[in-house]
Design goal:
The chain has one domain. Helix 1 runs antiparallel to helix 2 (49-73) and helix 1 runs antiparallel to helix 4. The radius of gyration is 17 Å and the shape is elongated. Strands 1-3 form a two-stranded antiparallel ribbon. It is mainly α. 68% of the residues lie in helices and 7% in strands. It is built from 4 helices and 4 strands. It has helices at residues 2-31, 49-73, 88-111, 119-143, and strands at residues 36-37, 80-82, 117-118, 146-148.
Length: 152
């Protein structure tokens, strides 16, 4: 079980790190040039949580799952057995929509009461949000994809 926990932790941390970096890159592209970003309005950051949540969720489920499926087929994960059945794209899309509505909606809603944020603060917020969300959806997806076959 330690190997399984370590496996999930490493995969989730990797996904979280990548999604944090991508979240910062996209936030820099969308909000660069402004020193203070309002929460609402045309250039506000509240609405940006919805597409961010969708993309982080979709990619945080799809990419690690494809990599793990390939490793399973190649015999690179001998202590794990496949569990998940059904098309990955459907599971990833449905999960991304549900997460976007629930988590992204909550983040956007809470942002509506936020004061304007300095650009650097917003980048930090986007990094933490993208990282935590990416790690969480990856761990969730991989728990549904593989299970341990041996206890250590």
């Amino acid at each position: 079980m330690r190997d399984y926990t370590r496996f999930l932790t490493v995969e989730a941390a990797t996904s979280g790190t990548i999604n944090a970096a991508l979240s910062v890159a996209f936030a820099m592209a969308v909000f660069s040039g402004d020193t203070v970003i309002p929460a609402t309005g045309g250039g506000g950051f509240a609405a940006d949580f919805l597409p961010q949540t969708f993309m982080v969720s979709l990619m945080g489920i799809t990419v690690p799952s494809l990599i793990v499926r390939k490793r399973l087929r190649a015999g690179g994960l001998p202590l794990f057995a496949p569990v998940g059945a059904g098309p990955l794209w459907r599971r990833a899309l449905v999960a991304a929509i549900v997460v976007t509505v629930a988590v992204g909606g909550a983040a956007a809603g809470l942002s509506l009461i936020s004061p304007p944020l300095p650009f650097a603060t917003l980048l930090g917020l986007k990094a933490v949000y993208g990282g935590v969300l990416g790690a969480a959806v990856t761990a969730w997806a991989l728990r549904r994809l593989v299970r341990p076959i041996l206890n250590d």
